[in-house]
Write a structure and sequence with these properties.
Chain A: Its cofactor is FAD. The structure holds two protein chains of two kinds. Chain A is an alpha/beta fold. Chain A has helices at residues 12-24, 45-48, 64-69, 130-140, 153-164, 185-197, 286-302, 371-378, 393-405; strands spanning 4-8, 29-33, 72-75, 80-84, 89-92, 97-99, 102-105, 109-111, 124-125, 145-149, 168-172, 201-203, 208-212, 219-222, 225-228, 231-234, 238-240, 256-258, 269-271, 276-278, 314-319, 322-328, 337-342, 348-354, 357-363. A five-stranded parallel beta sheet of chain A has the order 3-2-1-7-19. Chain A has a five-stranded parallel beta sheet with strand order 9-16-10-11-12. The longest helix of chain A is centred in the C-terminal third of the chain and has 17 residues, at 286-302. Classes of the chains: A alpha/beta, B mainly beta. The A-B interface holds A 19, 42, 44-45, 48, 58-61, 286-287, 290, 314, 316, 318, 325, 366-372, 374-375 and B 3, 5, 7-10, 12, 21, 41-43, 50-54.
Chain lengths: 406, 54
Amino acid sequence: MKKNYCIIGTGVAAVNAAKAIRDQDPEGNIMVFGAEDALPYNRIKLSKDLFSDLRSDKVLIKKEKWYEKQQIQTFPNTRVERIDFDQHTLVTSAGECIAYDKLLICTGANNRKLMVDGIDKQGVYSIRERHEAEEFKAYIEDKSSIVNIGGGIQGVETVWSLVKAGKKVTILEVAPRLMARQLDEHTSELLKKKIEDAGVQVHLQANIQQIIGEDQVTGILVNDNTIPCDSITYAIGVIPNMDLVENTAMKTCRGIVVNDRMETSIADVYAAGDVTELNGVVEGLWDRAMDQGKIAGKNMASMGTEVYQKTIPLTVFNAFDLSLFSMGLVDEAQCDTTLTEEDGAGKYTRLFLKDNQIVGVISLESVIAAAPYKAAIENQASVAELNLNELSIQEVMDSVKQGGNE
Amino acid sequence: MDKYICIPCGYIYNPAVGDPDEDIEPGTAFEDLPEDWLCPVCGEGKDQFAKVTE
């Protein structure tokens, strides 16, 4: 008997799960259901390359031919309306009832809605799906000044796209600094300066009070000052999209609760990607979704016990005339000590240490230089024997590397 | 053989591993990847890759 594998959602977790299932089970039916109107695409491009052709094949995770070759059936424009876990069936917006042997829920996350007076005015956008990016682009085509709310990486990338398109941009962030999850104070401050050099107004610790305008946005009230603008876009975090399993027996908290095999609390049902909560954490990261999809797919097809292991987070940033990368644990408060090196001419590297191991790094270099740090973090190399006060970061890295080769 | 890194996203192509998803056999040098090969993580082309310094 051929098995039926159903996958709900069309993000990167879905593609990787479908692929992993096919690798294990050449016979089974694999069906991927998505509410969006196209094949799975690289969502990251919606902020990074906002003004590129978002309908181009280049944006797709896999081309159409790949799905044909792998015999993976895709159902775009098809929402799954409900699931009957006891009967092992689901009902789609096309009215079909489909039986599954194994089910994967990877419905991703939605952008958190900004709670402020005037949020529903015309010209306010929060981009999660491709059609939203396209609507935003169409709206601002003949307009000039845009306010971006949110100074996380997605917001900063969007601002970079807007600046390159010749728009006048203001960035508002509630926190005292930009990209606080990936950067330390020094690099945050440098990023702010680079952004300002590009002609962007940056307001930190912004208290957003009201969106102003009749039907259409004409400005925003921030810290008791009105900033005039033609459009507003915001990216202030995500919340798992769990509508489908609300009021069911499935265990949820902030996300759908899974174990490290990506199993939910319901037999034969798995979840992966942004919709999940694992060990109390909702990740919301592209490469984690990819890895979780792979693990879920393997386990669905083989009754396997493949376990998901977190990879070291890596953020690469190339914008505003600034190249840097941030890897591993870079929260000073959780580390024992840090080593900083700078030459005053733009070079800056900071190592984060905990329990005599290198656990993270921020460096104002191209990611080309990241490999030795990645190896040191992965190998949990010990620096216990080193006199850190007397060594340069290069010397520390050399010693760690030699130690690893012995 | 050298490893190559995708500058936009940080994915490292390791010739010892290849890219099994795209039927690229282990032992395939980066230079020998098809010209239309794309980064398996972010979808950028080969021109966005640089040799890794170790």
